[in-house]
Design a protein that fits this description.
heterodimer, A: mainly beta, 5-stranded antiparallel β-sheet, 4-stranded antiparallel β-sheet, 2 helices, about 5% helix, about 50% strand, B: mainly alpha, about 20% helix, about 0% strand, globular
Amino acid sequence: MHGKNRPLLAGVLCVFGLLALPQTTWAKWYLLASTHPNNLVVVDTETDTVVKDIALEGRGPALYIAPNPAQPQFAYVVNNLAKSVAMVDLDEGKQVKSFDLASDNELVRTMAIDVNTQGTRLFVHEMPIRQDLGRYTAQDNRIRVIDLETNETLTTFPAPRQVMGLASSQDGKRLYLFSVGQDIFVHSTEDGALLDTIPLANRNISGIARTDGLPLGGTYQESGHLVSFGTFTTDSITNQVTLGIGSLDLTQADPELKIVELQPFVEGDYVLTGALSPHTNKAYFAYNSLWKVDPKTRHIEKKVSLSNTYFAPLVHPEGKKVYCGSNWHDVAVYDAESLDLLTKIPLGHSQTGGVSVLRFVNR
Amino acid sequence: MKHLKAANSKARAVTASVAQATSETVEEDVVGMAQPIGCTTIFNPGWEANPWGGASSMCAPMEADLLSCANLCWWPAQVPDSLQNAPEWAKGCSGMNQEDWRNLDVVFPKTGTSG
């Protein structure tokens, strides 16, 4: 082989090598953000700039987002006053379908959706109310299971009330339901049977009256199937509340709920939730301040004031940045190590607050 | 509930229902959190206060959570019910933090209804 062809050959081999790598090693991470009035904003997290602002159809506000990990071209967004789930083509930049939950005599809203890792099922927690003349009757809550190959409903199964978070196990066999003021319920995705209950509110530990916690703003699939959230533990004698970090590794078949109590929950450090970095095992909390805690030592390593309230801290899937947002018209990006403000990403409209209105997707 | 006293027929119906459920050892299906998610525990408009009775843990500035509280009815008394009765309340100011939030509608109670 002539020496002058070697650079060309090396280039060709490099291209083939890159193409042979799994998608996740070369694709980019994007941030999806629900905003008013009824939009899904796509942010390139390499440049931290908005690359698409997708107006959804019908009435807003755009709320909870569930990316499709297996087909990241598509994401699912609750809108229409929480009565529909819009299917959005991120490449085309438009809504391609709407799953309407309500019927003629039943008003149905949702506060929790999830797409399994395999990208084959959309789970929707439904809160139905039967509408009769002059009378509303609350119906039993349920999970609707939608086949994403046919976009048809496969089945529904009974579910607890007040569910505000859903998460699928990595193998797709179990669905975890996070409910206000209750334990964590584990259902089979095959037949909907209740397989297990993981004590959270009722941990039955001496000295602890109860523990509350919800994976608000959860990005578990992007974090290696690590569900993490702030916990609030009430002392049974003093009634004092302690802020902690809870985590559940959904790569495990029978995961253990780990809770580390960190600091007194006081007015100056009010938070809605927190997040655990799977890269460094450091816990992040944000509301009117952003701070980082080492759960092993309970030492607050760094704390910075925020320019305004951000409801949720999200650890970037690569672990080097923390995105604070969910309610303001921008997302503030901080260095995960130093907590230096890197940039603010103007979204053009206010975010809609609430649960899982920011998610990452790998494209 | 033990610190509240029913003052009208609907509230008395709730009290009776709870008492009946307790006597029949029916498990409650709606449970509150000991630590409420949301920054206020007071339901009087204009009198927001946090679980400690103060205001320092409220959103700063207030516009940071006004819309998100209305979306999901977190504050059922302080902001209009945008899910059911006043869905267009924030239409004139959907990007509140960049627009003039005086464009928000004023919502008055409906007349001619019992309650």
